[in-house]
Amino acid sequence: MNMKLLALTALPLSILFACGGKESDTSEETTEETTEETTEETTEEETTEEVSESYVRVVHLSPDAPAVDVYANGNAVVSDAAFPGGTGYLTVPTGEYTFEVAPAGTSADDVLPINLSATLDSDTYYTAIAHGYLAPEDSGNGFAITPFVQDMSDITEGNFRVQVIHAAAGLGQVDIWNITDADNPTPLIENFDYGSDVTTELPTGVAFVLGVDVDDDANPDVTFNIPDSLTGFVGVYATNDAEGVPFLFAHLEDGTTVRLDVAP
After folding, report:
1. How far is residue 158's CA from residue 203's CA, in Å, rounded to a whole number?
2. Running DSSP on this structure, what letter comes out for residue 40?
3. Are residues 100 and 126 in contact, defined by beta-carbon separation less than 8 angstroms?
4. Which has fewest Cβ within 10 Å: 40, 41, 139, 202?
5. Is-contact 130 145, C-beta < 8 A?
6. Which residue has the higher pLDDT, 83 or 10?
């Protein structure tokens, strides 16, 4: 994916004293000096005033959607984003935004009718995920763009932070199990609804086996091997391909993504 980053003075009142002669000159000189100093201070303040910024990354997890270009307030910010894919963080001014997508290689006139309008707060990190089906069958999960806020506070030493997001349009509510120890399976996330997220911390340097139970019988229907190399903040998105086969999509802080398929 190719990414583009988006891209007060005060005049003092002069008080003149009509004292004449040398004293008058001194008053005028003092006033001029004060005016110059005040102007310089004001200019310095204006120069050092920082622009408030937000951080947002984009993920394409809509199984039947083509590669897309992403627009923010009518300006192209990501081009040729294919499924499944994710970007690094874009730095943008804080404020109101409308995010839209159009088939790759077209223009802002060709955006889909579904968009995301959101207020991006200062010094806050977001992941905007395009998910769901463009052509949902029956009452399936239709196309949407959903923002998720990241917790980028300090992480406990020896842990990594993971934000798990259920974006698998082909699945309903699921339960996530830790079955690393097959003799002692432990539920991690219960009653996990489509479109929701959960953030937690896990120890680094440890490989996990996660199970996904899709029919609420406490027996995982598919399992995934999670590598022991995860550090920092990691987004893990549950999704599925156009045929309905589920997989996990890991999104690292630097924008790198890793697809994790069902374990054999």
Report:
1. 6
2. H
3. no
4. 139
5. yes
6. 83
